[in-house]
Write a structure and sequence with these properties.
The chain has one domain (about 5-140): SET domain (Beta-clip-like, Beta Complex). The chain has one helix spanning about 70-80, and strands spanning about 5, 20, 40-45, 45-50, 60-70, 85-90, 95-100, 110, 115-120, 125-130, 140. The chain contains 1 helix and 11 strands, in the order E-E-E-E-E-H-E-E-E-E-E-E. The strands form 3 sheets. Strands 6-7-5-10-9 form a 5-stranded antiparallel sheet. It has a 4-stranded mixed sheet with strand order 3-4-11-8, with no helix packed on it. A two-stranded antiparallel ribbon has the order 1-2.
Length: about 150
């Protein structure tokens, strides 16, 4: 079934930001959400990651997640723990750090990613957006914005 993607900023944080086109006609009712277009899968040599469960067109907001933003002092302490592996740069200038509370934190690295993270500093959220069409069954990857601490898997 082919979907007509329509963004709706009224959706709750952490839920897919796509609604059925017919919902535009009835804004007074609760927005009807579509199921996520990804699933979490275990990858050999990579650990968990996100996989598209259907074709995702370029520009689609895949999921939005809340973040916990912290200062440099906390960043130093967090980097010495396992959570340091899940540290993201945050902000328009990427000058702050955060932990993402949701599926985006499971995105693996690719030198040529098919998705990117867009920060919303006002709402303290990040959104995963498709950079190009993503095929059903394809892993959804981002480019990590810091030096890699591991050897990338093929």
């Amino acid at each position: 079934m082919r979907r007509n993607y329509v963004a709706d900023r009224r959706l709750a944080t952490g839920l897919p930001s796509r609604v059925r086109d017919t919902d535009r006609q009835n804004r007074s009712s609760l927005t009807q959400l579509l199921p996520p277009v990804f699933s979490i899968r275990q990858f050999k040599r990579k650990g968990r990651g996100l996989v598209a469960t259907e074709q995702i067109p370029a520009g689609v907001r895949i999921v939005t997640c809340p973040v916990i933003v912290y200062d440099d002092e906390d960043a130093g302490r967090i980097s010495k723990t396992r959570l340091g592996d899940y540290n993201f740069r945050f902000g328009e200038r990427q000058n702050r750090a955060c932990i993402v509370l949701g599926a985006i934190s499971l995105c693996n690295h690719a030198d040529e990613p098919n998705a990117e993270i867009v920060c919303n500093e006002t709402e303290l959220t990040v959104t995963l957006v498709a950079l190009r069409p993503i095929a059903e069954g394809e892993e959804i990857c981002i480019r990590y914005r810091r030096p890699l601490w591991f050897t990338p898997a093929a």
